[in-house]
Amino acid sequence: MTWQGWLQILLYLGVLLILVKPLGLYMARVFEGKPIWGMTAIFGPVERLAYRAAGQWPPREMTWRHYAVAAIAFSLMGILFVYALQRVQGMLPLNPQAMGAVSPDLAFNVATSFVTNTNWQNYGGEATMSYLTQMLGLTVQNFVSAATGMAVLVALIRGIARKSAATVGNFWVDLTRGTLYILLPLSFALALLLVSQGVIQNFSAYKAVPLMESASYSTPKLNADGTAAKDAEGKVIADETQVTTQSLPMGPVASQLAIKHLGTNGGGFFNANSAHPFENPTPFTDFLQVLAQTVIAASLCYTFGKMVGDTRQGWAVLAAMLIILTLFIAGAYWAESTVNPHMAAMGVDQSTRDINPGGNMEGKEARFGIARSAMFAVTTTATSCGAVNSMHDSFMPLGGLMPLAMMQLGEVVLGGVGSGLYGMLVIAIISVFIAGLMVGRTPEYLGKKIEAYEMKMAALLILVMPATVLLMTAAAVILPAGVTAISNPGAHGFSEILYAYSSQANNNGSAFAGLSGNSVFYNLTGGMAMLIGRFWLIAPTLALAGSLANKRSVPVGPGTLATHTPLFVGLLIGIVLIVALLTFVPALALGPIVEHLQLFAH
Amino acid sequence: MDLLYVAVVLVFFAITWGLLKLCQKLGGAK
User: pTM of the entire structure?
Assistant: First the structure.
């Protein structure tokens, strides 16, 4: 670890904190329906057109059930559209590489993945998707899935803020305003910044460029039955191929990249995601991407405080999130800075010097080093973004445990745009409930009594994800279809599968890339995990919103638990960690912890 | 095969609809 590495981490946290209040205030204005200076004139007509197209003119308030039906129906249409687009992309324009139809199981997985804001990719974009599919299918879903998450959050906030109300807002209004006034302008600005640093944006065909040095590789000759042909001595006969050119993929990358991070989507244009030099050419673009994937989620905490009339509530929740985030970043940085004994035995220099970043550089980009790679890995799994600037599968066992555990916390540390905070607010409700049990008082959160119904919804919300992850992981490590995809047998192979389902059920999308996920088994089960992790959480969240909106407000009394104090922040952190640890430590013990012990056994 | 995957999606959303009804029945606000 170096002082430069720590400085980069502190600089990122500092800039993030500076942006929270202004962006949070702005988003509160957007979701309260107030006019936005300079933007209402431009986007107002588009906004009204969108409402008329949805049959919502003038927009009417919705009950929680109508809101949920609207959100879910919209997502269903999105899945069917993106599926169909992939299946017929070979017949559509903007396809200079003549990509054929995506296979049905992969198309299903991709459609569910992008609509649920997961962006799990069992494919390499530059080898599978046409430009039209990338833009009209995937990039559009990047915007609207993020806006859907924000809409559900805002419905919950209104449920907490309103008293004796039957409605929680209008889904189409929240979706449209979130897209037009928040995601589009921020994405536009970020895309321009990224292009200025060298991220590509074009519709060109892929370019063949001569290699500096030609390369050769051998492929075995095959018999008619597909087996390798052998000579009289039993050696495999191979054909030598000389390669003198390299194909450089092109495409409209910057426009997808901006929303990939801002909307905590994570789906890269290229297979290598943010490790690819055309997606992430410089440390400055890397800084922008880490900031972009966390800024909206962090600022929504301030928006929450503003909308409930007490910004201290938002700061308290944000404080709990950032404390956990900083601890995990530090943990990952430490773990990746340690020396890998196998590499040391091979004579690899892992010392930190001016010309050597030191530590575990396997799977990492030299322009980012250890600190940036660790920070990116933790922030991307904290926020359910899932983009990667290094290969998580190559991390040290405890280094890989950090992003894995981050996801298993339920994506409530910042979390996805909208979904992270509504998850954390449910944890806050559980925290006041537990505190109430300890002192024998009726729990209340921001003036609303927490009763049996609220706890039933909260219980659903914290059980659905772990059940999905653990049951699916168990099935995959038993069934041959699941086991054959592992490239690294043993504890690490188990970690790969656990990571895959943790990622998909939490709508993250990052992966331990050693798992060959593009099979019918993983495409189908992964798709189901993503759908369950998204929509079976949205339904109880909106039910909770409706129930809270309907309640009267209880005045603050001498025995009310204050939810803006350091005590409450500590309670919140404790509940987040204890609930997740109790659920996942047995599984983690079989994966990364065993791997760590085996690695350092000798 | 297309019909199979479309059917999987529709069945999932039908179950989600059932979950919504369950949440309502458990005593949620109207």
Answer: 0.91
Element (H, E) at A576: helix A566-588
- pLDDT at residue number A602: 64
As a dihedral over the C-alpha atoms of residue A181, residue A185, residue A187, residue A193, rounded to 10 degrees, the angle is -160
* ipTM of the complex model: 0.92
Q: Using CA atoms, how far apart are residues A342 and A596, in angstroms rounded to an integer?
A: 12
SS3 helix, strand, coil % of chain B, rounded to 5? 80, 0, 20
C-alpha–C-alpha distance, residues A445 and A430, integer Å: 10
Query: If DSSP states are collapsed to H, E and C, what string results for A471-513?
Result: HHHHHHHHCHHHHCCECCCCHHHHHHHHHHHHHHHCCCCCCCC
**């089960």: which residue's tokens?**
A525
Q: Strand ranges (DSSP E) for A89-194?
A: none
Dist CA A71 CA A294 (whole Å): 24
Count of CB pairs separated by less than 8 Å, A with B: 77
B-chain residues near A520 (CB < 8 A): none
Give the pairing type, strands A444-445 and A207-220.
unpaired
Q: Which two tokens stand for residue A438?
A: 């300890």
Distance CA A237, CA A331 (A): 49
Predicted local confidence at residue B30, as pLDDT: 44
Q: What is the pLDDT of residues A383-421, one digit of tens each?
A: 989 999 999 999 999 999 999 999 999 999 999 999 999
* Residues A531, A505: Cα–Cα separation, whole Å: 8
> In this structure, are strands A448-449 and A207-220 parallel, antiparallel, or unpaired?
unpaired
Q: Which ranges of chain A have pLDDT less than 70?
A: 225-226, 602
Which residue in A362, A365, A342, A355 sits closest to A596, CA to CA?
A: A342
Integer Cα distance of A469 and A509 in angstroms: 14
Within 10 Å of residue A456's Cβ, how many Cβ atoms?
A: 19
What CA–CA distance (Å, rounded) separates A1 from A223? 53
**What pLDDT is stored for residue A214 in this prediction?**
86
Residue A578 to residue A400: CA distance in whole angstroms: 20
**Residue A298 near residue A414, CB atoms below 8 Å:** yes
Nearest to A65 among B8, B10, B24 (CB): B24
| pLDDT on residue A290 | 96
Phi and psi at residue A121, in whole multiples of 5°?
-125, 105
Going from the C-alpha of A491 to that of each of A478, A593, A594, A596, A599, the distances in angstroms are 14, 9, 6, 9, 11
Q: Tell me the C-alpha distance between A499 and A386, whole Å.
A: 12
* Spatial contact of A395 and A405, defined as CB atoms under 8 Å apart: no
Nearest to A65 among B8, B12, B20 (CB): B20
pLDDT at B29: 45
A488-493 — which CB contacts under 8 Å span 24+ positions? Answer: A488/A393, A488/A514, A490/A595, A490/A598, A491/A397, A491/A590, A491/A591, A491/A592, A491/A594, A491/A595, A491/A598, A492/A397, A492/A591, A492/A595
CB contact under 8 A, A531 and B12: yes
One-character DSSP codes across A181-205? IIIHHHHHHHHHHHHHTT-----PP
Judged by DSSP in three states, A246 sits in: strand
Of A64, A104, A547, the CB nearest to B5: A104
How many CA within 13 A on the CB side of residue A163?
11
